[in-house]
Amino acid sequence: MSVAAHQATTRHLGAAYPFAAEPGLGGEGVLVGRDLFGGAFVYDPFVLYRRGVLTNPNMVVFGQIGRGKSAFVKSYLWRQAVFGRRAWVIDPKGEYGPLARACGGEPVALRPGGSVRLNPLAAPDPAGTQRLDPDEHSRRRCELLVSLASSSLGRSLLPSERTAVELAVVDAEHRAGPGGAGLTLPLVIDCLLEPTAHSASSVRTGVADLAADGRQVALELRRLVAGDLRGMFDGPTSPGVRLDHPFVVLDMSAVYHSPALGILMTCAASWLQAALSGARADMSGGVILVVDEAWAILSNVGVARWLQASWKLSRAWGVANVAVLHRVSDLASAGPEGSEQVMLSRGLLADSETRVLYGQAPGEVEAAVSLLGLSGTEGELVPHLGRGTALWKVGTRSFLVQHRLSPHEAALVDTDGAMAEALGPLTGAR
After folding, report:
1. Residue 128 binned pLDDT confidence (cut-offs 50, 70, 90)
2. Could you give the count of Cα atoms lying within 13 Å of 45 in the half-sphere of its Cβ?
């Protein structure tokens, strides 16, 4: 006796034959929303790293304005706080203030000539934490200064210029005293302009020649000290600026339209990451470091080098880095085709095993398929993703996820405050 064939839509097939559904990433971590092919979608990079699902905890989030990427990032940080995660955010547009206040803090507002200074060369060392080896501190400081100068000059530093920077950092560290607490950008610039005889003799040159080698670098860095960007990174960190709060936001909206935004964001990231390198947070506790508007850093080859090097240290520091960009093509447009900027941008992507892709314009499909390794079907989905729906690539697996917000979260994370009152009891992300 033959059995009549049964027809069903794919919407109902999961109930009729549940074994066809994607098993998901497990139930340990933050609820993001609904997996459109398998129920709830839960994600935590620290958990997945510990289980061996991911080899690094870093994430890149792409999305056009209004498709929901900002709402996702903010609500993700808010929910992670329940699990004891700390969040440090570099906020170029000043959008994370309400969330910081909801967590009991205030954004640290950075502006030229303002009252708050951060010292990117000597970050505060939290009590009871392990300090880096002094040589490693020196190397990191040199790399930061070389990156800033290279970006400002628009070229790679000459060997003589790099040597002058390295010697100036050593001299400045000696003058700053034990632990480098007094080490500041003005002090390094002074040592570049007036090197010691000992430094000159160590590279078999004269004081005047060594000063000449470092002069262009010193004058470029001087802009952060005495030029139009003074008053943010040109002295000791202001008293009262703390990193032990669960949600730290560096508000850089005052310089959002500055051509030097990438350099300033790098100084801010350096201050945060120097503290991370000293703290060596345990992966089970973890810190999430968000670099919003990351295109501003990637477009500068010098600072992009520094950022990629920092990204690679995520596992050692117990930090999950999150870079937020508008378009997938931002990675390819960081510089000319085949340029170092483009290679560094793609390297940053390679060091981020979680890629979250919100809606993109049709012209972005080719870049998305090429750079993110999308299948043909996934590529076709990209322009049609609705608000709050994203394609997640987690390691080698793919998920179609609808982000969900509670009414309380919507009021905190929605950049369109006028629409908040119109939200229902449970809504898709904005």
Report:
1. very low
2. 31
